[in-house]
């Protein structure tokens, strides 16, 4: 099993630079494989922009891989996004993981100049153009439905070749087939339940077989929102408060977290592992960096040693 930790991203008060630097240093000391953020361009939660935060994290770390899950790439200009991703990959000396998804039909596509009837096509074509921009070719030619690029010089290139690992999100069968076709890994959303994740894993495994891709080269992971407390009822209250800070009143969100005493959390995480997760992305939902740091310490001391 591989274990990663969420990077505190809330910006409800002044930026806690000292706290975040200490958090990142401690995550490396504790042996976490990666530190991850998420994207919420439009929403009530005051979340710092993901790639910019990862660029900051790159300067504060030496070993920790840095991930974002997921970028709704249909809302971005592909060439500008490819350039930003390249910058973070180079600033981190090749430690970046990139999660992507087209976004659901409820997204406010009009705010980004995207037709909601063609957002899947926007997503697929945009990803193809980004991969072309990251290729070894010094000049890029690409003729698509939405972008027409002719002999453009694009430099520099990412450190990781042919590009940083591409993680896909999604739950629908077509989305999971797309993940296997175009991606390198799958990450179940924190806002999906363990039961829904288990169903998605079954589809991913079937697609790997049908598309003749090696399962050993395709990682399956899951973001897990969680809260540890010696009082299980208080843990439940704290984790729901944290989820509401991120998602507001989104329907179904109260069914997704793992919370309770260390024993309760171990049991919940084992269920995710048994459902097929090869990588667990622990996502404490504290109100600030200090609360997330306390959760990270408890995970390392009281939970992870008992998971294997």
From TrEMBL:
UniProt keyword annotation of Transferase present: no
Record-annotated Luciferase-like domain positions: 15-247
Keywords for this protein: Flavoprotein, FMN, Monooxygenase, Oxidoreductase
GO terms, biological process: alkanesulfonate catabolic process
Gene Ontology molecular function, alphabetical: alkanesulfonate monooxygenase activity
Protein name per UniProt: LLM class F420-dependent oxidoreductase
Organism (species): Mycobacterium gordonae
Species lineage: Bacteria, Bacillati, Actinomycetota, Actinomycetes, Mycobacteriales
